[in-house]
Write a structure and sequence with these properties.
- With 413 residues, the protein is α/β, with parallel strands linked by helices.
- The relative contact order is 0.17.
- It is built from twelve helices and 19 strands.
- Helix content is 32%, strand content 27%.
- The protein has a domain of 193 residues: FAD/NAD(P)-binding domain, CATH 3.50.50.60.
- The longest helix is centred in the last third of the chain and has 24 residues.
- Flavin-adenine dinucleotide (FAD) binds next to helix 1, strand 9 and helix 8.
Length: 413
């Protein structure tokens, strides 16, 4: 069997490594002429780290990321609402990692270059169209710089991991136009700053329409600064989002007014915003779930299949789980790739639909909105505002939806 994978983002590269591990021949086609380390931070949950460990990537992850120790929610005054251990500290057999998206993509790319060989990873190949001829699938590419047609590539299956603007998805769902805009914008940056709380804490403060997320993606050397990744998530309204360009910049003066008073005794949010080298602006968008990903010899994976709000640290993690699932399905029925792609879809589609919907309702972060609704001016005692049972119920329910309930995950063989 020969597979063509379109897109060398985290999803496409994880798919290439997963297929290669199970002895399935594959080649990767990426539109950008050169894979540069773009983006800011992301998180990998223990179930995704489990799959990456099976791929032999645990040492590289440990070198590149910070093993997140806890997740903590606060109100807009910086007062704690909920704290829970994460990763190994929570009893998982695998860590949770916070790391730079570019470093994650690079460690996957390096492993793919070593294992598949450089002649199997083709940059400067933008998927333009494909033909499923029953016996095989032929992908057509253009050079993204000149627009010239490149030689077509024939394979047994095509895995489209080409992100939120997937060309393949547009073929299957031509009436689906733009991603769905939430009215909210994400401002993202990294800043060298003193470590806070455990030094490996992921924190959120605020409520649905004005929220600040921060976590280290490089730990502090003794006495030195950590590299803090931060995201400001703010409702700005309007029908039409700004350009959906992951590399679009904005000014500190746009972000600061929303967080001017958010100086907590354990974290100075205005200072984090002031200290960033660059601030990136991206609208909070997702897409309505679709009923099918697999059509004959072609399937969707990662953000092409299920773009979701970056709530609960799921975007990259779910792409890694897709990669493991599609490889396992293909290995299980190597003589029938069409059936394998259907089985992959059956295994993964429903699970990701549940996360897309849960994330639209703020996922586990809903507790911050509950506290804001009940005590907008703050509180003296948290238990007067929200019970521990409510907090535990929300956190536990989301772990089950997103597939990282610790007991269930640790019990997997
Ligand atoms: C430049 C960039 C920066 C990002 N920054 C962040 C961030 O800071 N934090 C965060 O949480 N998430 C970020 N994301 C999104 C995040 O990577 C994904 O949500 C998640 O990791 C799933 O990855 P994916 O591989 O499915 O999709 P993506 O990461 O979007 O990767 C898709 C890949 O397909 C390529 N591609 C697109 N169209 C074509 C085509 N027609 N032919 C061939 N190749 C194509 C793209 O160049 C890209 O390399 C970013 C995505 C991009 C593309």
């Amino acid at each position: 069997m020969k597979a063509a994978i379109v897109g060398a983002g985290p999803g496409g590269l994880a798919a290439a490594l997963s297929l290669h591990r199970l002895g399935i021949d594959c080649e990767v086609f990426e539109a950008t002429p050169e894979i540069r380390q773009l983006g800011v931070g992301l998180n990998l949950l223990p179930h995704a780290v489990r799959e990456l460990t099976i791929l032999g990537l645990a040492p590289r992850l440990a070198e590149s990321g910070v093993a997140t120790a806890e997740l903590a929610y606060h109100n807009k005054f910086g007062v704690p609402i909920w704290r829970e251990p994460r990763g190994l500290a929570a009893g998982y057999n695998w860590p949770q990692y916070s790391l730079h998206r570019g470093l994650f993509q690079k460690l996957l790319l390096d492993a793919a270059l070593e294992r598949l060989g450089p002649d199997r990873i083709h940059t400067g190949h933008r998927l333009q169209a494909f033909r499923d001829d029953s016996g095989s699938v032929t992908a057509e590419f253009t050079d993204p710089v000149t627009g010239a047609a490149l030689p077509p590539h024939e394979a047994d299956i095509l895995i489209a991991a080409d992100g939120i603007h997937s060309v393949a998805r547009r073929v299957f769902y031509p009436s689906e136009v733009q991603p769905v805009y939430s009215g909210r914008v994400l401002w993202r940056g990294t800043t060298e700053a003193p470590p806070f709380l455990t030094g490996r804490s992921m924190i959120m403060a605020g409520y649905a329409n004005c929220k600040f997320v921060a976590y280290p993606i490089r730990e502090a050397a003794p006495g030195g600064p950590a590299l803090i990744n931060w995201v400001a998530d703010v409702y700005v309204g309007g029908d039409t989002p700004m350009a959906r360009d992951w590399n679009r910049r904005t000014e500190k003066s746009v972000v600061l007014p929303h967080f001017r008073d958010w100086r907590f005794d354990w974290l100075d949010i205005p200072a984090l915003i002031e200290g960033a080298d660059a601030i990136y602006e991206y609208p909070l968008v997702d897409r309505d779930p679709v009923p099918r990903w697999s059509f004959g010899r072609v399937t969707l994976l990662g953000d092409a299949a299920h773009p979701m709000y970056p709530v609960g640290s799921n975007g990259a993690s779910q792409a890694v789980l897709d990669a493991a699932a599609v490889a396992a399905a293909l290995a299980a029925t190597p003589d029938n790739p069409v059936l394998a792609l259907q089985n992959y879809e059956r295994e993964r589609l429903g699970k990701t639909v549940a996360i897309v919907h849960s994330n639209r309702r703020q996922g586990p972060e809903i507790v911050m909105q509950m506290v804001e609704d009940r005590a907008p001016n703050g509180f003296a005692r948290l238990s007067d505002v929200i019970t521990n049972a409510e907090l535990e119920e929300v956190a536990g329910r989301y772990k089950a939806v997103a597939g990282f309930d610790p007991k269930e995950l640790n019990a997997r063989v």
